[in-house]
Structure formats: C-alpha cells, structure tokens
C-alpha cells in the first residue's frame, strides 16, 4: 500500500490539546500550503473549528485547514484518518490509555507515525506487540520525539558518529548531562506521568520494565552490563563535578540502548550510558545533588502510594489541557550535553555534543522537535539502515533531524571536548 497519493501530508492528532495546538501553530507559521498539506485531528468538531479559526487568523498564507474527526478509542475512525494521511503526528496522551489503537491503525495503513511519549511501560508494550508487524509493513513508528528523548538520543548519535568518522571507533560510554533548563509542565504531561505509577502499582510487566535497564531492547537481548539509572549523588567520572539523578533517565537511557540495538550495535554490545544532572564541585555540589536526589526520592515515594497519588492528581496537578503561559514558553531554555569517551591509537579522546534551545524545553522546543520529526518522515530525510518497526529518533530518523533543528534555531554542535569543531 503506497501512502504517496493521500490527501494529507501530516495530520496533527490532538490539535485541540495544549501540546497539539503548539505543534499546529508551529507548522502553520513555519510552512505554507505549498509546502505541506496539513489537517487538524481530534474528537470535537467545535473545538477543532476554534483552533482552525485561530490559526488561519494568525497567518496570511493559510486560508483554511482541513479537519478530521475521530475517537482515540474507535479503531474504525482512526483507520479512516490514517489511510488519508502520510504522517500522523500525535500528542494525545496518556498514551497508555489512548495510544495503542492509533499505532495499530498506522501499521495497518502503512502510515508513518511520531509522538511525544515518555511512558516506557507503553513503549515496551508497543515493542512486544507491534514491532514485527511494523517491520513487515515497512512503516516507522517513532516514539519519544520531544524533550524525551531527542536531545539525549540524537546527541549520543552525533557523538558516536563523530567518533566513527574521525577516529574509526566508537565511545564505550556516553554520559548525558541536563546542564540547565527553565520551563513549565502541562496537565497532560503530568497525567501521563501519573499513568505510569498507576500501571506500576499492579502490573508486573510495567514493574519489570522499570527495573530492567534493557527493557526496551529487542526480545532476547534484554540484559547487559549497565546497572541502571543513578539514584544517589555521585562524583562524576567524566567531569570534576557532583551529579544528581535525572528524572528523565528511566526513559532516555532505555531509548539510547534501544537505538544501539536497532542500529545493529555500532556502539558495541558493552555500550554504557547514563543521564544525570550536574550540580557543581565541592560542598556546594554535594548539597545540590543531595537536594535533587532527595526531592526525586520523596516525590517518587509519594506517587507510589495510591491514595497519595490520587490526591496529588486531584489537588496539585493542573488539569489536562492546561500548561505554561506563552511568556513562560518564550522565556524558557535548556542545554543538554552528551559526552563520550573513546580509545584511539593516540590515547583516550573525549567527544561532546551540545544540544540547546532558547525556548521552553517541554513545550516550545518539544513542539518543534515533534513537528520536524514529522517533516523528516514526510520528506524521507532519513539516515538509518532501519526502514520499519517501533523505533527511536536516532534509529528511525538519525542525523537529518539535527540538521532540521539547527536550521530553525537550535544550537547543536559536536566535536572533541574543549574544541570548537562542529558537525
């Protein structure tokens, strides 16, 4: 089944939600109807009409944007939508509750797919249920195309590619540092976070997924030398700083290991990775790392208790559809650094990628990462030996995504540490 001659190039599924609206705004600001055939998808015609009216009022090039109506729980309506588009770009979460029928419909209709999920229990389910079917359909289903997990995954790919191209070797280990950031959190993101804890409370597969560092690797390859994410303050082995655990490590580290596996282990079967938050050197660094680690432990403990989690969801978390203000998104920023070390004939070499943006990481930047992932799929701008399956950004798209993000203002450089070389 060819998806070339379809009425829509991209459907933003969930266009009335907080993240979906940002993705739709970005696409209509960055591209014209001559560039892409765009449609807005969701359940409510009235709300979609309102979004469409706002978008067309803000631009001179978009007179109208088609609307497609469906229900995330109705496979028939999803099948009708996916067979009419080349790429589905979805922000509808929690994916554990609403994502599976859309993935299945995309595979059945050979429609390329990208999303924002950080729900590793659900990604594991998609891998186990649908990877082989997606491979056979020659269809890319690419999860985690936002702040989870593009900077870590593409950053690591750039480090490893630089090592291969310049030193004919790979880095045995890559450490990802969340160096700085400022941004808000939406109700939808927190709802997805809570769903993970709901599943972990009574589902043994979810529990195993969270416990096994290799749980997103292909079946039969779910073990290795990595012991899992950091849980306590540590003195970093690459840089002279103290580090704290990263709340994103459980998803990002597993995504990196899956990328390595899907690409055929170009980084070696003993590749190790970690994601951490640097807090500085000396006593200040120790105190900072301890505060971050303690806060994560307390929050995790609270979310692991059913009544407490219910109370937090009801009285603390914002409602789905709510999120940071436009000014907060504009004032946000982040810097992620991936650092790898490889062994050459002349001794050890340290390579680093800096990946940063001057927009809120979870929304302003994430909307652009997801939208440009969809554009890569649409234009077949792919640098990967993998043509179908349940994929990661690095294994499903690769370096062309970094190129697109650079072109729209992201700072992405790679070279030997303390040198200014860039790719």
From TrEMBL:
| UniProt region (Disordered), positions on chain | 211-232
A GO cellular component annotation here is: plasma membrane
Which PANTHER family does this one have?
SACCHAROPINE DEHYDROGENASE-LIKE OXIDOREDUCTASE
InterPro entries, per database record: NAD(P)-bd_dom_sf (IPR036291), Saccharopine_DH-like_oxidrdct (IPR051276), Sacchrp_dh_NADP-bd (IPR005097)
Which residues lie in Basic and acidic residues bias regions? 220-229
Query: Where does this protein come from, organism-wise?
Result: Haloquadratum walsbyi J07HQW2
What is the official name of this protein in its record?
A: Saccharopine dehydrogenase NADP binding domain-containing protein
Saccharopine dehydrogenase NADP binding domain mapped to chain residues: 10-141
Q: Which GO terms describe its biological process?
A: glycolipid biosynthetic process
């Amino acid at each position: 089944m060819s998806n070339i001659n379809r009425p829509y190039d991209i459907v933003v599924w969930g266009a009335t939600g907080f993240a979906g609206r940002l993705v739709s705004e970005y696409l209509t600001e960055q591209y014209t109807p001559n560039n892409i055939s765009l449609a807005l998808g969701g359940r409510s015609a009235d709300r979609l009409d309102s979004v469409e009216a706002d978008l067309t009022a803000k631009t001179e090039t978009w007179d109208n944007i088609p609307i497609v109506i469906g229900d995330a729980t109705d496979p028939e309506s999803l099948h009708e939508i996916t067979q009419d588009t080349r790429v589905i770009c979805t922000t509808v979460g929690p994916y554990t509750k609403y994502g599976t029928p859309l993935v299945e419909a995309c595979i059945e209709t050979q429609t390329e797919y990208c999303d924002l999920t950080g729900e590793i229990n659900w990604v594991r389910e998609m891998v186990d249920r649908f990877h082989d079917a997606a491979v056979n359909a020659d269809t890319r289903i690419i999860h985690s195309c936002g702040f989870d997990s593009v900077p870590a995954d593409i950053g690591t790919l750039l480090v490893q590619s630089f090592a291969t191209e310049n030193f004919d070797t790979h880095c045995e280990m890559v450490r990802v540092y969340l160096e700085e950031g400022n941004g808000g959190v939406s109700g939808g993101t927190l709802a997805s976070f809570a769903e993970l804890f709901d599943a972990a409370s009574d589902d043994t597969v979810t529990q195993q997924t969270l416990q096994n560092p290799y749980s997103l690797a292909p079946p039969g390859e779910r073990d290795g030398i990595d012991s899992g994410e950091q849980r306590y303050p540590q003195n970093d082995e690459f840089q002279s700083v103290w580090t704290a655990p990263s709340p994103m490590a459980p998803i990002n580290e597993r995504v990196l290991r899956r990328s390595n596996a899907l690409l055929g282990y170009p980084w070696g079967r003993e590749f190790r990775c970690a994601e951490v938050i640097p807090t500085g050197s000396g006593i200040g660094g120790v105190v900072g790392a301890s505060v971050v680690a303690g806060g994560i432990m307390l929050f995790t403990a609270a979310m692991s208790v059913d009544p407490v989690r219910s109370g937090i969801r009801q009285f603390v978390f914002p409602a789905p559809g709510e999120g940071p203000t436009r000014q907060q998104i504009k004032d946000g920023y982040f810097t992620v650094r991936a650092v790898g070390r490889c062994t050459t004939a002349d001794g050890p070499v340290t390579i680093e990628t800096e990946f940063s943006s001057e927009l809120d990481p979870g929304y302003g930047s994430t909307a652009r990462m997801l939208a440009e992932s969809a554009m890569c799929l649409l234009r077949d701008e792919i640098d990967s030996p993998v043509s179908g399956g349940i994929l990661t950004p690095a294994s499903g798209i690769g370096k062309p995504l970094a190129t697109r993000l650079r072109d729209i203002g992201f700072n992405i450089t790679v070279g030997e540490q303390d040198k200014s070389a860039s790719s």
